[in-house]
Design brief:
By secondary structure, this protein is α/β, with parallel strands linked by helices. The chain has three domains: 63 residues, Trypsin Inhibitor V, Chain A (2-Layer Sandwich); 63 residues, Trypsin Inhibitor V, Chain A, CATH 3.30.10.20; 53 residues, 2-Layer Sandwich (Trypsin Inhibitor V, Chain A). It is built from four helices and 13 strands. The longest helix has 28 residues. 12% of the residues are buried.
Length: 252
């Protein structure tokens, strides 16, 4: 290789090294002055809120409570429920206490009231027992007393809805219940004229009956007039009691 060639090669090498050093120096100077691209702003995720308890509330009231938490109400369906009154929420999803993002919906089911139930046979039972059975089904019990000397007091004599018939809660049922005959008070017959037919009919209306009639001669009484009874007038007597009369002697 000639001397000129060596000089040229050395010159080229020196030039390349100088260029490389210049490039490195330029990079070192530029890096601090270059601005990093600003990252795109991402929308902030809203904080989760706690789902309130809605069971037992009416949908309108539940909607107000959810609105305060920026939540929505979604009515799913209306279904019978044995214990929750009609019109009230008996199911919700998510459950109370769950955490969800604002704007989401809480799905609820509303009660249609207890399902139809078959009326039991309560005739012959004590009214307290029969009433309890019927009210447990949500029925409104109406009691109609009736005097019945052949039945035990407070015994149910009849019901106006046949046993086995399906009814919904809130329906009314009437029970006829035996009532002890009222204890009549014996009228005061003293001094009244004794007419056997009239007296017998009057006593019968009171649930009493005519007993023995004793005709006696009392000097200060008029013939045919009553001067005493047994029991005495004004006494409360049991139904069916026979009332004895003492009457001034009267020729029949």
């Amino acid at each position: 290789m000639s001397r000129n060639s060596s000089v040229i090669a050395l010159s080229v090498t020196t030039s390349l090294i100088t260029s490389a050093l210049t490039f490195v120096a330029l990079q070192i100077w530029l890096v601090p002055h270059l601005k990093s691209p600003k990252p795109e702003a991402r929308p902030e995720t809203p904080a989760a809120v706690e789902v309130p308890r809605l069971l037992g509330l009416r949908p309108d009231d539940a909607k107000i409570i959810l609105k305060e938490k920026n939540l929505l109400l979604s009515l799913s369906k209306t279904t019978p429920h044995p214990t929750v009154a009609a019109g009230l929420i008996h199911m919700q999803m998510p459950l109370a206490g769950s955490m969800i993002v604002p704007g989401q919906s809480v799905v609820v089911e509303v009660s249609a009231g207890p399902p139809p139930a078959a009326v039991p046979l309560v005739v012959g039972k004590n009214v307290a027992v029969g009433r309890a059975e019927l009210e447990k089904l949500g029925l409104v019990v109406q009691v109609k007393p009736r005097e019945d000397k052949n039945a035990t007091p407070d015994q149910i004599l009849s019901q106006n809805i046949e046993p086995g018939q399906n009814v919904t809660a809130g329906a009314s049922i009437e029970l006829v219940v035996a009532q002890a005959a009222a204890t009549p008070s014996l009228p005061d017959y003293k001094g009244k004229y004794f007419n056997k037919k009239d007296v017998s009919e009057e006593l019968e209306k009171l649930g009493l009956k005519l007993g023995k009639v004793r005709y006696m001669d009392i000097s200060d009484q008029r013939n045919g007039y009553i001067y005493g009874t047994n029991p005495e007038g004004g006494t409360q007597v049991a139904p069916g009691t026979a009332i004895d009369f003492r009457v001034q002697y009267l020729e029949e």
